[in-house]
Write a structure and sequence with these properties.
The protein has about 280 residues and is mostly helical. The protein has eleven helices and no strands.
Length: about 280
């Protein structure tokens, strides 16, 4: 590719536009993937138990077209432009005027910002697209975990393998660092899980958190695991306390850890190893 063309296509403004489009698709993933997984689990359970199962149509990631949850209005292409359509429609369905969740444009804007920052951080090189993919997957996982307290293997395991293979190809961090990051990431939370369970008889986190931190370790390396966990723990505790004091956290419910792991990992990715270690006084 011509260097000038590459410089233009992988510049922060161009990546921000790409991030807006990807963010629009991430909204679909966050909304539909849990329903698709639940449908598959119900079907498998029915087959094992030998009971009838109504195999109703379940939306896929690509079809059918998105519809208003209030009136069923099929959203036209010009009503589905990232951020712009939300502003033009003033946050309401064009048919029934039901409010549209602010989270849709928020996910699009956050993804665009992350893509632009990745372009600034890693420069106009093809491997920057890998880091954009890493960021996009973390956004999807954070949204799904917040809604459902699930971190699907459909996303965490491909993210883990993508990190290891990208490292093996020489596109990201050294391979030993990625392998040790994945192993230590998984085993550290696995150990905390069992220690907490043996001590209290309760489960403090899910297995998806282990896989997510393993994936983060494969991308960022073993040295970045502790800063990620520390940052996620502090922010998660603060948010949990705030929700507990307010009406946001009902009795018997808990705040999922995945969104804070994802957020801390994104901060560490954009800051870089040298700066993060300097913040902690470990440089």
């Amino acid at each position: 590719m011509d260097p000038h063309v590459q410089q233009t296509l992988l510049s922060p403004p161009a990546l921000a536009l790409l991030g807006l489009c990807i963010g629009s698709f991430l909204n679909v993933v966050i909304h539909r993937l849990p329903a698709m997984l639940e449908h598959g689990w119900r079907r498998e359970s029915s087959e094992v138990l030998g009971v009838p199962f109504a195999d109703d149509d379940v939306p896929g990631l690509m079809k059918p077209r998105s519809r208003c949850p209030a009136c069923g209005h099929a959203i036209a292409w010009h009503e589905n432009l990232p951020v712009l359509s939300y502003l033009l429609l003033r946050g309401r369905c064009s048919s029934c005027r039901a409010p549209i969740s602010i989270r849709y444009p928020l996910v699009e804007v956050v993804t665009a910002l992350l893509f632009a920052l990745a372009g600034w951080r890693f420069g106009a090189q093809p491997s920057t697209l890998l880091w954009c993919g890493f960021a996009a997957t973390l956004v999807a996982l954070a949204g799904i975990d917040w809604d459902t307290t699930l971190l699907p293997d459909n996303l965490t395991l491909p993210l883990l393998w993508a990190g290891l293979l990208s490292s093996a190809a020489g596109w990201t961090i050294p391979l030993p660092d990625a392998v040790w990051g994945a192993a230590v990431g998984y085993l550290s939370l696995w150990s905390v899980y069992w220690l907490f369970k043996k001590t209290t008889g309760k489960e403090g986190m899910g297995f998806g958190d282990f896989k997510l931190l393993a994936a983060v370790g494969a991308w960022l390396g073993v040295k970045m695991l502790l800063p990620v966990v520390l940052g996620a723990s502090v922010i998660g505790a603060a948010v949990g306390i705030a929700m507990k004091l307010g009406p946001g956290l009902r009795e018997g419910r808990y705040v999922p850890f995945g969104p804070f792991l994802a957020g801390a990992a994104l901060v560490v990715m954009l800051a870089g190893q040298a700066r993060v270690l300097g913040w902690l006084g470990w440089a």
